[in-house]
Write a structure and sequence with these properties.
The chain is an alpha/beta fold and 283 residues long. It is 46% helix and 11% strand. The protein has helices spanning 11-14, 37-63, 82-88, 108-111, 117-120, 142-145, 151-154, 157-170, 184-196, 206-211, 215-229, 244-261, 273-282, and strands at 69-76, 98-102, 129-133, 173-181, 236-240. Helix 2 runs parallel beside helix 12.
Amino acid sequence: MAKATTWSKPVSKALRADGVQVKDLNTAATPGFKGDKKAGEKYLEERRAVLSDLQEKLYANGRSGDTRNVLLVLQGMDTAGKGGIVRHVIGSVDPQGVDHAAFGVPTAEEKKHHFLWRIRKQLPKGGQIGVFDRSHYEDVLVVRVHDLVPPEVWGKRYDEINKFERKLADEGTTIVKVAMFVSLDEQKKRLAQRLERADKYWKFNPADIDERAYWPAYQEAYQAVLDRTNTDYAPWFVLPCDSKWYARLAVTELLIDALQGLKLDWPPADFDIEEQKRRLARA
């Protein structure tokens, strides 16, 4: 299946956050993709292989001293599918080349430090794809919605985040930020499924039901994030996630775009190839 017949426009354009209004978002949409679920799942398998090859190149270059890396930020409400992205997209690449970090409620130690302290500790190294399951944006989302710190504190953090991400980009990190959204109806359905399956109980948190009452406040908080931290060096992509297959395919495409943008080639040998061939023949 040729890519030209699958996408009506590049995913990076179809999902770019410019001008998006969270309250008006159609979470069941599949922006830019022209096929159905069956076509999407088939195409995902093809693109996972492409992603794997590109990631191997990134990792190989990192082993040879290249300090460039990719940071995938997954930010979304409960049940948006962050774990599925990690399992079905990131799971297709060599785990040696992945740095994964999940950010929950800050620990007592983390609360003693600046909000970016724990984030800096988890940044990917050269040659790595870093994955943030939730991120530094918790500190302008959850803390805002639940009034955990005063507005004069979290209000300054948007500029701090922009400066932080600008520095990362300048130092060779390609940042891919994905804001993941499901409808309240779809979220309710997914939470109900967790309560019906013993193998999903561990994923259920009673507090997830309480958070549903705050969705209007979260919409406002996410809108502020998109309006104030969507930059050319660290753009936001707004991802409708009611269709899990589409969300996984779209993130795969975003990572492929990011890696292709690095224009990687295989690192050259740092030894005499012919000499090593002769040595091997004599061994």
